[in-house]
Amino acid sequence: MKPVYKVCPKCGAVGCFKPFTDYTRGMIYIDNGIRTETIIVVDRVQCSSCKSTHALLADFLIPYGSYTLRFILHVLRAYFHRSCTVEALCEQFSIAIATLYKWKDLFLEHANLWLPVLKRMSQISIQSLDDFENIDKLPSSFFRRYGFSFLQSHQTMGYSRSP
Predict the structure, then answer these.
(1) pLDDT tens for each residue of 23-69
(2) Percent of residues in the chain assigned helix, strand, coil, to nearest 5
(3) How far apart are the first and last CA of the chain?
(4) Which of 23, 27, 95 is nearest to 67 (CA)?
(5) Rounded to an integer, what distance in angstroms lies between the CA atom of residue 14 and that of residue 91?
């Protein structure tokens, strides 16, 4: 399901979007515990008021990245479960060790914003990650509250994902 923007995140105009263009993007997701890759088409709209353009990203996509939210949470769940070494985990999902630690650090930073009960890394449990997966529309809700996207490390001015 594609998101629909009602308010321009840049200028605040209401009902001002018109189709603009689209682009393809690689997407890495988890399918039955296995890393899977595909190419998707992302639609863009343009605000008729300020002429800014916005990508219509589904909630499972993280801006400026190829990995889906569910993929990252699956990897982090395995990391916090400690069922294998970091090296084996990264090899299993074909990610760099630095990427895993970047995700872990972003998760801890963002989780502490979103769920104040997660105060320290030692308090994170497998259930905590499961709780994140069960929050309906987590990325767009997180963005509305904090002004940046959950697990997005690339910061830009004027970028947004409001529904």
Answers:
(1) 999 999 999 999 999 999 999 999 999 999 999 988 889 888 999 99
(2) 35, 25, 40
(3) 12
(4) 27
(5) 46
Of 119, 108, 1, 6, nearest to 54 by C-alpha is 6
User: pTM of the predicted model, to two decimals?
Assistant: 0.68
Q: How many residues does the chain have?
A: 163
Distance of alpha carbon 55 from the chain centroid:
14
Q: How far is CA 22 from the centre of its chain?
A: 20
- Residues 76 and 131: their CA atoms lie apart, in Å, by 13
Could you give the CA distance from residue 44 to residue 54 in angstroms, rounded to a whole number?
A: 5
d(CA 74, CA 34): 10
Instruction: Quick: pLDDT tens for 88-137.
Output: 999 999 999 999 999 999 998 887 777 664 454 445 666 666 666 666 66
What is the DSSP code string of 49-116?
TT--EEE---TTB-TT-SBBHHHHHHHHHHHHHT-S-HHHHHHHHT--HHHHHHHHHHHHHHHHHH-T
Query: Residue with structure tokens 């399918």?
Result: 31
